[in-house]
Amino acid sequence: MISFKRLLIGRPLKSNELGEQKINKTKALAILSSDALSSVAYGPEQILLVLITLGTAAYWYSVPIAAGVLVLLIALILSYRQIIFAYPHGGGAYVVSMKNLGVNSGLIAGGSLLVDYILTVAVSVSAGTDAITSAFPALHSYNILISIVFVIFITILNLRGVTESASILAYPVYLFVVALFIMIGVGMFQVLTGKVPAELHSPIGTPIQGVTLFLLLRAFASGSSALTGVEAISNAIPNFKDPAPNNAAKTLIAMGILLAILFTGIVSLAYFYGTSPKENVTVVSQIAENIFGRNFMYYFIQGTTALILILAANTGYTAFPLLAVNLAKDKFIPRMFTVRGDRLGYSNGIIILALLSIILIIAFQGKTEQLIPLYAVGVFIPFTLSQTGMIFKWLREKPAGWTYKLIINAIGALICFIVTIMFFITKFLQVWPVLVFIPPIVYFFYKIKNHYDSVGEQLRIQNLEERDDISGNVIIVPVAGITRVVKNSLNYAKSLNPDKVIAVYVAFNREEEKQFEEKWNKWQSDIRLVTLHSQYRSIIQPLTKFIDTVEHKASESNYRVTVVIPQFIVKKGWHNILHNQSSLLIKTYLLYRRNVVVATVPYRFKA
After folding, report:
1. Which pLDDT value is given to residue 342?
2. Please, is 194 exposed, middle or buried when counting C-beta atoms within 10 Å of its C-beta (0-12, 13-18, 19+)?
3. How far apart, in Å, are the Cα atoms of 338 and each of 162, 326, 349, 509?
4. What residues form DSSP beta bridges with 602?
5. How far, CA to CA in Å, does 528 sit from each of 462, 513, 519, 559, 586?
6. Whole-angstrom Cα distance, residue 607 to residue 604?
7. How are beta strands 501-507 and 474-479 bridged, if at all?
8. What secondary structure does DSSP assign to 465-530, as a single string?
9. Burial 93-130, CB ≥16 within 10 A → b, else e
């Protein structure tokens, strides 16, 4: 089993190798911009799907609508650049909203983004699968299966680490950019040289019967789905090499420029070639076929489009675990999300994201068009909150040049708010789940927070100087901090043999180890403390190895080893599982040891 795991994700990395997992601007642009860049494959199509209700003559409206989307893009890029420097440790909309608008706003932004990143994976993989089946229609019936296989592949890739996944994923992203630049260049050349018949498109300004401001705003909101993923860089600042904020800001600007060129180019080509949305053929596929025919270049564009749509899911895999870490540090979700895996990535977040994405793909039958509105509105809620939060920040702090910064954020907040409202008004039947899932998510955030606060209060020892004084066996007491649980376990251990009690603490870094030793010496200097440094962030392995060593020495002296393990007793079953994972693993490991006795010390607290 271990050999298979090593084959899939590689050898474990030491904690001091974390710096090697940071990525440069070139790789970051690929893995963090892939979601935004891939949006150009379906963003322009969303505009045309609205305008087609007025007839193909109304397609000229896609040009001014695209200009409006570009204005919003500029506002978002400039705003998130400010967020990067204002909050250089990452967190994006969650941290901005939490610090400037309050806890509720922060949790709404955080919950929306968590769901959005799940949708990122589902939408990207589904859209990529659609691109493949557009070129090979015989595969349409296998859409769901193909999507699930791609999710598993990307999950394994991310479990291998950020650097390795970035090295692999960079090539398809840049190939996609090159392919679209070639298509846009050749297509515009044909337009300028008169090779594209003028009758394919109606002139700009042609009067259209039945056009309304409401319909144009609806098309604008739909086209704004091309801006999903813009916030990912501000969430993933910790993944950049130093100086991280500067590198993140430069990557954000580069992404904005590429996104503007590609989006404008595809909208323009769709207009000039009179391309209409079709059920089983994407707009990009139709444009490529009109320009090149069904030759190598067509399949090259389709192939790279499918790849980036699928690999755009990697933006979710990069941003979801980092956002989960911020929420977990604030105790709004389980602390398991803060634990790094063998390859220094946040494996629990990666695996949970994959499972939820697969469930979503199956639930929606892999229908991308059903997911996009839900996906887009999930992005624009945090967009609006983060822009508004920055407005409050500038008004409160008033740093140098704050007026200019305030104007940028105010424009961005207004446009994002309009887009959000338009999604709810025009696509309510598709986006109503947002109104259903956000309140329960926020509620569960609070429940988890209250649980952790309640447990922390019950476990906390008010006075570190306070001690309780209470043969043969060596008594080992694994400790994870200075709490009432540890105090009770030590009291029990001393009642068995006060002279041979050994407290064992597993530290993941030297600074943490030193700090705990100082606290321990103030509190329990009469009990020997052994600190074990775990360079692979495993608690069980170094602890059991230490127990093996002590057992071997004790057996030579005809002593037995007793391991004292706390057992949390909570009314709610999931709380028991949450708090007793390590205890269960240790007890399972020691179950059949001849010279080792496991003593369980129950500790009951309210959930």
Report:
1. 66
2. exposed
3. 16, 8, 9, 15
4. 567
5. 22, 15, 13, 18, 21
6. 9
7. parallel
8. T--------EEEEEESSSBHHHHHHHHHHHHH-TTSEEEEEEESSHHHHHHHHHHHHHH-TTSEEE
9. bbbbbbbbbeeebbbbbbbbbbbbbbbbbbbbbbbbbb
What's the one-letter identity of residue 280?
Answer: N
pTM above 0.85, yes or no: no
Reported as a single tens digit per residue, the pLDDT across 462-502 is 444 443 333 457 888 888 778 777 888 888 888 877 778 88
Identify the burial level of 68 via C-beta atoms within 10 angstroms of its C-beta, where 0-12 means exposed, 13-18 middle and 19 or more buried.
middle
Query: Do strands 561-569 and 528-533 pair parallel, antiparallel, or not at all (unpaired)?
Result: unpaired
Q: Give the count of beta carbons closer than 10 Å to the beta carbon of residue 275.
A: 26
For residues 165-191, one letter each, b for 16 or more C-beta atoms within 10 angstroms of the residue's C-beta and e for the rest, the string is bbeebbebbbbbbebbebbbeebbebb
Q: Are 254 and 77 in contact (CB under 8 A)?
A: no
Taking Cα atoms as reference points, which of 141, 140, 168 lies closest to residue 154? 168
CA distance 294 to 232: 36
Encoded amino acid at 318, one letter = T
Q: What is the pLDDT of residue 412?
A: 85
Place of tokens 């996009």: 372
Whole-angstrom distance, CA of residue 401 vs CA of residue 405: 7
Residues 6+ apart with CB under 8 A from 327: 94, 110, 114, 333, 337, 445
Look at residue 57 in the predicted model and tell me its pLDDT: 84
365: left (phi over 0), alpha (psi -120 to 50) or beta: left
Q: What are 519's two structure tokens?
A: 């606290």
Q: What are the structure tokens assigned to 132, written together? A: 């493949």
> What are the two backbone dihedrals, phi and then psi, of residue 436, each rounded to the nearest 5 degrees?
-85, -45
